[in-house]
Amino acid sequence: GKGDKAKPYQSLALALRKAGSGSTLRVAAGTYKGDLLVKARSVVLLGGFAQGFAVRDAQKHRSVLQGSGKDAVLTLLSAGKTKVDGFTIRGGGGSSRAGAKEVYGGGVYITGGSVTISHCVIEENSTTRKKGEIQQAGGGIYARSGDLTLVDSVIRKNTSKRGGGLALMELRRATVKRNLIEDNIAVGDHGGGVYAACKDLRFSHNVVQGNEVGRKIGYGWGGGVTIIGKMTRARFEKNLLTKNFAASLGSGYFIDDESQATLSEELIVANVCAPEGGSAIFVDGLDPKKGSRAALSKCTIGEHPCGGAVAGNALRADQSSSVEIVDSVLWNNGKKPLSKGKRS
To answer: Looking at residue 271, what DSSP letter applies?
Structure first.
């Protein structure tokens, strides 16, 4: 085809190669195989059109980007204000652009730019195709530097060592809003659903459920969400975290290594009992002198009735970390819902 409405391109990869910066590509329903690249330009990718392009409904007319399993399905390198809306992205194997012993971004790999992903389903991607001592992160999405907006999307059944669903690394700002993040697996030790080191993380109105970390290796922290690092500042508001699992501590939230978080109107309920406590929230520092900080307001933490010697199933704080809890409800979290380390 010519790439117009009457005679569209039959190859999305070809359309992307021909599209100049600022172009909008409208994609009809169908399965588009192969791995795609956008580099040093901004494009708008809109999926979900019926044949003829008169009607758009991404749920009814599914535009599926099917990866080869040898790279990220969609790679965005310094892609400016690129927008990706209305696609199912699956079957990715992650990118090794950062190095031969690194595999990042099973479904989507992003460096730089100010990218928006909306109304997408990102599922069944993985970074585990290489064995051995390989660094892995971001089974569904990996984003480094720049800004990311992720809204109204589903991130599910993705796998990586860290950040089974999402890995957000060294971003200036990340807005994660109204998403379903579920059933992702971190086969390593941090962040079943989300693993984030971000200067300004705004995480609101999401459902984070059924994610897990460290089950096979026998240890791991942050089944739902992990934030990490001295420069990380995160604001969590009106999220639901439930049924997440961590092999060690923090089945819901893990706030680590001098990071700082505010949590407002959160519902953290019925996460799986963590063997070492902190089943809902675990706040840990970098070392005995450098703690993390968390402030909770109008939160509800309930249904973690973990017994035995385990303590702090609503909240556990260690390594000089500090926590403030105001106007919140802690309910049915066992005999010792709160615990602190010697210097907490």
So the answer is: P
pLDDT value for 277: 87
Q: How far apart are CA 186 and CA 172, in angstroms?
A: 24
Radius of gyration of the chain (CA): 20
Residue 69's Cα: distance from chain center in Å? 20
Pick from 288, 314, 290: which is nearest to 301 by CA? Answer: 314
State the number of CA atoms in the 13 A half-sphere of 22 facing the CB: 0
Per-residue pLDDT at 343: 41
The span from the CA of 10 to the CA of 34, in Å, is: 13
Percent of the chain with pLDDT over 90: 90
Q: Where are the alpha helices (DSSP H) in the chain?
A: 12-18
- What is the secondary structure of 125-176 as a DSSP string? -BS-SS-SS-EEE-SSEEEESSEEEEES-EEES-EEEE-SSEEEEEESEEEE
**Model pLDDT for residues 114-137, shown as the tens digit of each residue:** 999 999 999 999 999 998 889 999
Identity of the residue numbered 318: D
The mean per-residue pLDDT over the stretch 81-105 comes to 97
